[in-house]
Amino acid sequence: xxxxxxxxxxxKMTFVLAAxxxxxxxxxxxxxxxxxxxxxxxxxxxxxxxxVAVVGLPVLVAEWLIGRxxxxxxxxxxxxxxxxxxxxxxxxxxxxxxxxxxxLILSFYSVIGGxxxxxxxxxxxxxxxxxxxxxxxxxxxxxxxxxxxxxLWHTAFMALVVWIVARGVVKGLEGAVRTMMxxxxxxxxxxxxxxxxxxxxxxxLAFMFRPDWGALSGDVVLAAMGxxxxxxxxxxxxxxxxxxxxxxxxNLLGTARTVIILDTGIxxxxxxxxxxxxxxxxxxxxxxxxxxxxxLPLAFGNMTGGMLLGLMFFLLLTFAALxxxxxxxxPVVEFVEERTPLTRVMATLVSAVAVWLLGIAALMSFNVxxxxxxxxxxxxxxxxxxTSKILLPLTGLGAIVFVAWCLDRRSVAAELNxxxxxxQVWLVVARYVAPLGVILVFVNSLLG
Length: 448
Ligand code: TRP
Known about the structure:
With 448 residues, this protein is mostly helical. The protein is 77% helix and 0% strand. The protein has helices spanning 12-23, 26-38, 42-70, 74-84, 92-124, 133-144, 147-166, 170-197, 201-209, 218-231, 238-243, 252-280, 291-302, 306-339, 344-364, 379-406, 409-415, 420-446.
């Protein structure tokens, strides 16, 4: 147990920035938009919003609360709180499955982080200037088809993450988050503005918000729930870890609302920026993981000042990806550090090399190894699917059930400043609606 002396966030703002830095990442822009496209648009978006509100919010609050009370890393916090509340120690499994999820997610996250780095460089060298949809598509195909190039960028991204974590400059990043997050929002708004000039904005709006409920299936709902967990960094214990640094005075519900509004807002803006470009150029919304890379460069390549804006956008996206990736590596490093005699720096290196190796298998899915390995999915899709659709929701379910059913009801209500009616709402949502929602979604998608 290395973290005996537990510091607290210097201010509430620092904590919000760290949580937002973890939450806002590739999930909001890259993953959200391609998931919307793959899953038929508005029905997915609306279910996703419902999942964020009804499941995401209570789970986020539950994770912070566990962390703040446990004052330890997720596995030990769960074990200790379980012991104190006369519950089996097996609850620590919730923490352990989070570490596994972090490891698996980071491996493919780093591959996409690499794409973002590559496009940052591409913007500087003017690769996209004047390109049409075919040209931009060919550039992306060229990247995907070249495993060595993908490896190079994946390696570069992981190296950046390791460098930041090993040097312990994570705290220093918070200042940068404070300026770069608003800058990202401004750029997204500019891109939405560009979308309005394409003449296909209305189509995009309808695609995102006018549901064709016929498109809804068990799997679409599961995908939407998985996205809600992924984008809020839930079900992995990272929010528990952050919660362990939280002072007693921080209002958990209010803070959760702030983080969620920011996170969801950025995702919706990303959709409104990307889909007008899709429709204006006759592209396919269901393009898959490459969606933002074959759409946004079209905007940058054809608008005034596009080169500079493109550079800024991919830089900010890379930065957002880095702050999320750091939060993914952290629990793995902490796990290795506690269970082996390795120093912090060595533990960081060992964890990163393991993640990097798995990432190589993931990037090969786009070229030399596209074949399905299990359940008809290639390595990349398998990693993404298994984590977001299974591990994250299950772990999150564990966290909310633990808080709602195993901790003293009154003390939880007091900690969340709930009384009377609001306490009743919390109880109904945390005890029944959120857990049953997760279970129903599982059952429903199993039945097809
Ligand atoms: N939320 C981040 C994103 O949207 C990714 C991420 C960081 C994450 N930490 C996580 C996802 C923990 C799940 C669990 O890009």
